[in-house]
Design goal:
It comes from Magallana gigas (Pacific oyster). The chain has helices at residues 24-54, 56-60, 64-91, 97-131, 136-139, 142-165, 186-224, 232-268, 278-289, 293-301, 303-334, and strands at 169-172, 177-180. By secondary structure, it is mainly α.
């Protein structure tokens, strides 16, 4: 199947009539998968935000401001990036032009970087809460959380703007989204990859892992010590919250690993490889799934979120029932 617009394997603006794209079945499967992920991402993260704002317990928990920021990045990914990818798959081409292509690539990478840094800062906050439970309220204030959030977005914007400014971005047919084409400026791209990898992923990842290691160690030590400020009940609550956060982190890395591997391979090996195939499409879908799984994890492992979700569902369902009853009454009256 030849795509509807003129582009090579990686460009929507260069003619290559020899290029064979996805089959009709492949396109339909990819579009369906993206649509499902987008719906879950948008609805799930909206539920997280509403749950926190409508629940006094969740709203008063300082760390949930970081959780809201993570939900906002995932929601934005669903509304903007995944939607653009879905539309391009349905059209079997990029129809939005080069300017929006640069913009959507920048937004995509900005959200990825911001999510990673937010996860890192969540681990820093939880370390303070577990290690210094009595001093936490003084050591971690709202201004500190807002500074973390601001820095995460600042770094995300800075690093995501560079490829678009240098003209490295093109529509990648197999990724089904506008992405950085590393082969365009190999030497500059390598420098960028190394710096971005260290500051946006390696360093935050190491901090995150180190924090959770110390958190688990601290919890076990304090519970085993007589007279510890952490009681058995608070240990149970803390351990469940930590477990949910750990699963969020693991899910993020699992989802982003195939995407990251394809990017690394594009920098280090030639383009005429298995990368220009369905493997790239699958890697993109799995990466997008990272935006949809967090609300499900919260619902499974945290009772406070389950209760909040239930209240939202009951409220929505109750309104529908009331509207239905009113409509039925009006119909009976008119008859």
């Amino acid at each position: 199947m030849i795509p509807n617009s003129t582009y090579s394997v990686n460009s929507s603006y260069v003619t290559d009539t020899l290029f064979v794209g996805r089959s009709g079945v492949g396109n339909a499967f990819l579009a369906f998968s993206l649509a499902v992920v987008m719906v879950f991402s948008v609805c799930g993260n909206l539920a997280v935000i509403v749950a926190i704002f409508t629940s006094r317990i969740l709203r008063e928990e300082l760390s949930n401001r970081l959780t809201i920021n993570l939900a906002i990045t995932d929601l934005s990914n669903g509304l903007v990036v995944i939607f653009s990818s879905l539309f391009s798959v349905i059209a079997d081409s990029w129809r939005f032009g080069p300017v929006y292509c640069d913009l959507i690539c920048a937004i995509n990478y900005c959200l990825i970087i911001t999510s990673m840094l937010t996860l890192c800062f969540i681990s820093c906050d939880r370390f303070q809460a577990i290690t210094y439970p009595l001093q936490y309220i003084n050591r971690m204030k709202p201004i500190h959380i807002y500074l973390m959030i601001s820095y995460a977005w600042f770094q995300g914007i800075v690093f995501s703007a560079v490829p678009s400014a240098l003209g490295w971005v093109e529509y990648d047919y197999w990724e089904a989204i506008c992405a950085i084409q590393w082969q365009k400026e190999q030497k500059q791209a390598v420098y960028y990859v190394v710096v971005a990898f260290i500051l946006c992923f390696l360093l935050p990842g190491l901090i995150l892992i180190f924090n959770y290691y110390l958190i688990i160690k601290q919890v076990r030590t304090k519970v085993s010590c007589p007279g510890s400020p952490i009681s058995a009940k608070s240990y149970s609550t803390s351990s469940k919250a930590i477990r949910s956060l750990l699963i969020v982190v693991i899910a993020y890395f699992v989802c982003m690993t195939p995407f990251s591997v394809t990017k690394l391979m594009k920098v280090t090996i030639a383009q005429e490889t298995v990368l220009n195939s369905h493997f790239n499409s699958i890697a993109s879908i799995v990466a997008f799934i990272s935006s949809a799984v967090n609300p499900l994890i919260y619902g499974i492992f945290r009772k406070d979120f389950r209760r909040a979700y239930k209240r939202i569902f009951v409220s929505i369902w109750g309104k529908k029932e009331r509207v239905h009853n009113i409509q039925t009454s009006l119909q009976d009256y008119s008859s």
